[in-house]
Amino acid sequence: MTLAMLQAALLIGVGATVIMDLWGMLLRRLGIATLNFAMVGRWAGHLMKGRARHEAIAKAEPVANEVAWGWLIHYGIGVLFAVMLVGMVGEGWLGAPTLWPALAWGVVTVAAPLCFMQPLMGAGFFASRTPTPGRNCLKSLVTHSVFGVGLFLSAVVVAID
After folding, report:
1. Exposed/middle/buried for 6, CB within 10 Å: 0-12, 13-18, 19+?
2. Of 68, 87, 92, 102, whose CB count within 10 A is highest?
3. Helices marked H in the chain — which ranges?
4. Domain assignment of residue 99, given as a range
5. For residue 105, what pLDDT is reported?
6. Cα separation of 93 and 51, whole Å?
7. Torsion of the alpha carbons at 115, 113, 103 and 136, rounded to the nearest 10
8. Residue 134: is it exposed, middle or buried by C-beta count within 10 angstroms (0-12/13-18/19+)?
9. What distance in Å separates the CA atoms of residue 155 and residue 16, rounded to the nearest whole number?
10. pLDDT value of residue 37
């Protein structure tokens, strides 16, 4: 991957994550609960102390700067996913982005929270330990689809020759 591709991927990842966050703001205004990124920071803080799995991360001891860490990790993951997409689709896509690879990748990335983060934070695989697993999975799928659209829109803005 060239430096230009990496720089484009960084901008695309940040842009797509901002779009996903705007979606989250809309959901909150509509009264729909969304992820509290402080819990991601709390999880990471406990991971640094050697504890990866929790029964319920919200009940775990708070850690210093968990809100800031959560947001930093959230954006880092968005950039990582964008770098992975650019690595898969190549430089040609950066010059003429199309929706489908970005949207498909956005959908694929939903596996990260459903199969990795949620189980470690106490929500179970596919949110199975929450009161409404199907609804939560659908909400995650839609949010990651919005991220995929954000990858495409951001790629259009930063298209390279």
Report:
1. middle
2. 102
3. 3-29, 37-48, 66-89, 91-95, 99-108, 111-112, 118-121, 133-157
4. 3-157
5. 98
6. 40
7. 100
8. exposed
9. 9
10. 94
**In this predicted structure, what is the pLDDT of residue 159?**
87
Contact 54/23 with Cβ under 8 angstroms? no
Neighbour count for residue 129 (Cβ, 10 Å): 15
In the block, tokens 């040609």 appear at 92
- Nearest Cα to Cα of residue 143 among 103, 115, 99, 94: 103
Give the tokens for residue 129.
């330990």
User: What is the tens place of the pLDDT at every residue in 18-30?
Assistant: 999 999 999 999 9
Residue 119 has pLDDT above 90, yes or no: yes
Tens-digit pLDDT profile for residues 61-84? 999 999 999 999 999 999 999 999
The per-residue pLDDT for range 121-147, each reduced to its tens digit, is 999 999 999 999 999 999 999 999 999
Identify the pLDDT of residue 161: 67
Report how many domains make up the chain: 1
